[in-house]
Amino acid sequence: MTILTIKIYGDPVLRKQAKEITKVDESIRKLAFNMLKTVREAGGIGLAANQVGEDKKLFVINRSFFSPGKDSPLIVINPVLVASHGEQTSEEGCLSIPGTFADVTRQLEVLVKGIDLDEKEIQIEGKGFLSRVLLHEIDHLNGLLFIDHLSSIRRRLLSKKLKKLSTK
Ligand code: NI
Question: Ligand 1: distance of its center to the CA of 113 in Å?
Answer without folding.
Answer: 19
